[in-house]
Amino acid sequence: MQKDVTQAHLKMKAFPWTLTVLLFLLAGTERCRGRQFQIKPATPRRHPRATDGREEVRKCAYTFLVPEQKITGPICVNTKGQDAGAIRDMITRMDLENLRDVLSKQKREIDGLQLVVDVDGNIVNEVKLLRKESRNMNSRVTQLYMQLLHEIIRKRDNSLELSQLENKILNITTEMLRMATRYRELEVKYASLADLVNNQSVTITLLEEQCLRIFSRQDPQGSPPLVQVVPRHLPNSHRHTPGLLGGNEIQRDPGDPRDSVPPPDLPASPTKSPFKTPPVTFINEGPFKDCQHAKEAGYSASGIYMIKPETSSGPVQLWCENGLDPGGWTVIQKRTDGSVNFFRNWDNYKKGFGNIGGEYWLGLENIYMLSNQDNYKLLIELEDWSDKKVYAEYSSFRLEPESEFYRLRLGTYQGNAGDSLMWHNGKQFTTLDRDKDMYAGNCAHFHKGGWWYNACAHSNLNGVWYRGGHYRSKYQDGIFWAEYRGGSYSLRAVQMMIKPID
């Protein structure tokens, strides 16, 4: 294409010069006609004779070599002979015909070149547009590349920060486990001191009675020893039986006043004991399958009953609540006054702990055996510090075995407390030493209890008991039900009860 355009350009450049030369030839001829030239007579020469005896007429011919440059003067054409005028006319017509042909060819070539120029111009414009678009695309690609580098750097920084946070959490968890071990040691020391105080209180009571006997001359047998070892529990008294049978290890807190009542065979003292408590009904019958079974057997009073689930190896003691219509509720958890610490390890939550006449946790294994011997429903009664009571009831309730970490299974909800337990449905039980929740850390450490935590809690009925409902910690570690009074308010009393479905 470029070669054709170059040749066409050379042709167009030669055409004006050719046309100029012809015009100058014509003009020079006309000028020569009107001008008188002085021609010197030529030297006579002898001409050869013709074969026919006549002298042949000689003709002159001229050849012009015209360079491709500008001509500044006229060009004259002189011809001699009889046909000089005819020759000039013939040359003029031939030149015009040639000029017409050349002009026609040049016009066709110009039209072709114009068409080529138009096409090439469109192509050039398209190339310009493509170059501009290419520059824009290059700028956009550079921008995207810079954004990608920024995201990669930010992700690397986030990974580094996450690794640092994980290390910090591990360090904090180790420290909390160390503190938990220390806390258990302090609990043992506290129990020892409570035993000592209990023994001293009983000893003081006996000394007071002995002094009264001496002064009233009613004791002829002498004084008792100054230090008397008194057991923490009185196995012969059926009035207050705090421990659950079957090795459940549920007992009252050390120093509980009901464990300090003197034996009935001691002489009565005129000094009133400060450890008097309301009487607790103890049903020494059974064992029964559950509290509904006991009620159907004719025992309708609320109190401590002997219960033996079908798959249990021995009976356990627990509280049966018959004050709620229609009664027959088996209490598996109870919070009333904060006298029992519920921040315990897995073994404690499995076997159970607390005071059956007050606050206690029945034990995951006992709850599992109870809930799987029949179809049970769950009733949770909540009470705030303004004496308002609400409830939440679930149509079914059961636990899976320890191999599944006592996973919770619930039915549908009804009540006026709001549903704050369904979010925990299907979750395994978590304690401070068994982390089975969905959170990266251990929810039991934050909420100070054991529960079927998710990530972490919408309810925390085994948390810390705060007097007045106001927290003294920055964590939501109180006894709360999120749908009732929110997570920043600690409830005063809670009861979890199960009963066979009618």
Describe it:
Residues 32-42 and 217-278 have low confidence and may be disordered. The protein contains six helices and twelve strands. Among the domains are: 105-210; 282-500, Gamma Fibrinogen, Chain A, domain 1, CATH 3.90.215. Helix content is 38%, strand content 12%. With 502 residues, it is α+β, with helices and mostly antiparallel strands. Strand 1 and strand 2 (316-321) form a beta hairpin. Strands 1, 2, 3, 4, 5, 6, 7, 8, 9 and 12 form a ten-stranded antiparallel beta sheet that branches. Its main location: secreted. Residues 1-34 form the signal peptide. Keywords: Disulfide bond, Glycoprotein, Secreted, Signal.
Uncertain segments: 32-42, 217-278
Structural class: alpha+beta
CATH homologous superfamily classification of the domain at 282-500: Gamma Fibrinogen, chain A, domain 1
CATH class of the domain at 282-500: Alpha Beta
What coarse outline follows from CA principal-axis ratios? rod-shaped
Radius of gyration, whole Å: 61 Å
CATH topology of the domain at 282-500: Gamma Fibrinogen, Chain A, domain 1
* Total count of strands: 12
